[in-house]
Amino acid sequence: MPISGVTQMSWKLGIMSLLYLLLYAPLYPGLVDTWVNDSNNSHGLLIPLVSLYLAWLLRGKLIAVEPRTSVVGLTLLVLSLLAYFVTYVGDLAFPARITMITTLAGLILFNYGWGVFGLVLFPVLFLIFMVPVPDTLLGLVGFPLQLSVSNASAHLIDLFGMPVYAEGNLLHFARYSFEVTEACSGIRSLVSFLAIGTLFAYINGGGRCERGLLVLSTVPLAIFVNLMRVTGTGILANYFGPKVAQGFLHEFSGFAVFGSGVLLMVGAVWVLNKVRLIKGTCGL
Fold first, then answer.
1. Where are the alpha helices (DSSP H) in the chain?
2. For residue 41, which of 162, 197, 202, 262 sits 20 to 30 Å off, Cα-Cα?
3. Cα 32 to Cα 28: distance, rounded to the nearest angstrom
4. What whole-number distance in Å separates Cα of residue 236 and Cα of residue 218?
5. CA atoms within 13 A on the CB side of 229
6. Rounded to the nearest 10 degrees, what angle do helices 187-204 and 135-159 cross at?
7. Cα–Cα distance measured from residue 273 to residue 136, given in angstroms and rounded to the nearest whole number
8. SS3 of residue 202 by DSSP
């Protein structure tokens, strides 16, 4: 592409970006407030930065693609803007935030065509992880998961010879009881693990089956590490008292669990790469 063409494309991209940012300015305060004050959604702060970086890495390929307009992109853009207007007026935060992504996709597809859109498809779709999942939806899945984690933890603790009784999401010990909260069920950290697993799958490459397996593995992984958190807390509290399940130690255990989950995910990537290497060496 000639230098003048690149300059013209840069100006067009800059103007579109500014208009897009201004259009969705009313949604930013609520999003930022959730990211900053809700530890379960703090990963949302990093998602736009990661998406921008991934798109920046593709800049060489993007410049080489000839821009083309798309009627499909125009249709998607118009429908997204209409949906944004309706959901914003109706004070429906979640669908209004989703239109941030569909509007961006429509803008790119309409102005630059399928070639550019195909290249930036993952960075655009990755933005879905910046949108906080509604509490009502989390509650539908979270409560049954709380009960399952509570019962499983009670069985594991019992294996260590400590008498414990699970009643709903409460674990009753001889001298005290403590509640397995929704956060400890794994449902809250699941979105964070899904985001990391999806990013790992994209960076690591491989076939669709391999990538899908890596992403899907984040679901049992999130449940498993939180199950270990509840079990470990119960065992420690049995020896050192219920204060172990509260305050700093409880918060620290959350960070430790998340870090352990990330390490396990890195281990899963390592295993997949080893399997791929063995298959390639053996000609499988």
1. 3-23, 28-37, 47-57, 59-64, 71-89, 93-119, 121-125, 135-159, 182-185, 187-204, 208-216, 218-240, 247-282
2. 202
3. 6
4. 27
5. 32
6. 100
7. 38
8. helix
Report the largest interatomic distance among the alpha carbons of the chain, rounded to a whole angstrom. 77
pLDDT digits 0-9 by tens, 129-159: 999 988 777 777 777 777 888 888 888 888 8
Tell me the residue type at 111: N
What CA–CA distance (Å, rounded) separates 188 from 194? Answer: 11
Length of the chain: 284
**What are all long-range contacts of 46-52, with beta carbons under 8 Å and residues at least 24 apart?**
47/126, 47/127, 47/129, 47/130, 47/195, 48/127, 48/130, 50/126, 50/199, 51/123, 51/124, 51/126, 51/127, 52/123
**The two three-digit tokens of residue 194, written as one number:** 């899904």
Instruction: State the pLDDT at residue 69.
Output: 86
153: tokens are 């933890």
| Mean pLDDT confidence for 118-139 | 89
